[in-house]
UniProtKB/TrEMBL annotation:
PROSITE patterns: HTH_DEOR_1 (PS00894), HTH_DEOR_2 (PS51000), WYL (PS52050). The keyword Zinc does not apply. The keyword Transcription applies. It comes from Thermosporothrix sp. COM3. This is Transcriptional regulator. SUPFAM superfamilies: Winged helix' DNA-binding domain.
Length: 337
């Protein structure tokens, strides 16, 4: 622990040029007395640490004692300091390690590049969380990560979409985080499969070493699996007429990326759209919310489905309004006269 602290002190001195014992003690969560002992240890090992007395004083390194990191251009420096999203690092238990690595890298940069690193850090922040805060619980992630990092076989229970559980023993190949969702890529029975980690229970790291296909590349596999997944999705196309209000709403919804065709109808103030959905029920539930602002042209089955839903709603509310409503005080008074 002390060796880590001494290194941290050295790096902080290189970053800040001058820093007080009180500030160091606060950052490293030790006493000022401990900091003074650490400074003596650094000095004894030949590192030129100097204490400046008085206002504005503190500990500093002699100017000639600096490390340098050469061979990086400005763009490469900026990319290095953009970093991974905090949530990904937190889930993997690497947030502290990332902070330490950033500090060490920053101190090793030539002075001219330190400004570019800080420039990038102040102008880009990656937030991987969704607006709806739908982060999934992944209690098995730490154990799975251990198996992946140590190249050990993994046994686990997996909950299928229907709620049933299956038992698996697999060779873990890698972890993928997409948005806020973690996935485990494994090899089972000479095939590569993907499992959603939030559905994994009772993961156990086995003593047996895992087997990794020699030509396997995680990034290439994931990119191809996305292509295959999208290609296998069902497709349900709907042709509609939409007014300006409906078009504005569509442009602000996720379905704007599913508009396959758009044709403006001259003189009518409407547009003809072809929208892609997965299934009819999805199209029904979304399009009915537009009311009369969207007219469904085809398919006829969807048009009839929405018409029937509208009739059912009308009948429902007509029955509700036919039930006697309690009179207010004024109506009661008028009835008594």
């Amino acid at each position: 622990m002390r060796a880590d602290r001494l290194l941290s002190i050295l790096l902080l001195l290189q970053v800040h040029q001058r820093i007080t014992a009180k500030e160091l003690a606060s950052r490293l969560e030790v006493s000022e007395r401990t900091i003074h002992r650490d400074m003596e240890a650094l000095s004894s090992s030949g590192i030129p640490v100097v204490a400046d007395r008085g206002t504005g004083g503190g500990w500093r390194l002699l100017e000639e004692y600096r490390t340098r990191l050469n061979g990086l251009n400005e763009n490469e420096v900026e990319v290095l300091f953009m970093g991974l999203p905090e949530r990904v690092l937190r889930d993997l238990g690497l947030q502290k390690a990332s902070e330490g690595a950033q500090l060490k890298l920053f101190t090793a940069l030539p002075t001219m590049y330190k400004q570019r690193a800080e420039y990038a850090r102040q102008r880009l922040y990656i937030d991987s969380a969704s607006w709806r805060n739908t982060e999934e619980a992944t209690p098995a992630l730490a154990r799975i990560q251990e198996a992946v990092w140590q190249d050990r076989k993994l046994s686990f229970s997996y909950r299928r979409a229907d709620g049933t559980y299956v038992e698996r023993v697999a060779d873990p190949l890698g972890l993928v985080v997409k948005g806020s969702v973690w996935y485990l890529v494994v090899a089972i029975d000479d095939s590569v499969r993907t499992y959603r980690i939030s559905r994994i229970k009772e993961a156990q790291v086995l003593d047996e070493a895992s087997q990794r296909p020699p030509d396997f590349d995680l990034a290439s596999y994931w990119k191809q699996s996305l292509v295959d997944f999208k290609a296998a999705l069902p497709r349900y196309y709907v042709t509609v007429y939409a007014d300006e209000y409906a078009l504005a709403r569509l442009n602000q919804s996720p379905y704007v990326h599913r508009i396959e065709q758009m044709e403006r109808l001259d003189g009518e103030g409407r547009v003809k759209l072809v929208i892609r959905f997965d299934v009819e029920m999805e199209a029904h539930d979304f399009l009915i919310s537009f009311g009369s602002h969207i007219e469904i042209i085809e398919p006829d089955t969807l048009r009839e489905h929405i018409l029937q839903t509208a009739r059912n709603l009308l009948s429902f509310y007509e029955r509700k309004t036919s039930v006697s409503v309690p009179l207010d005080d004024e109506q009661v008074d008028q009835g008594q006269r």
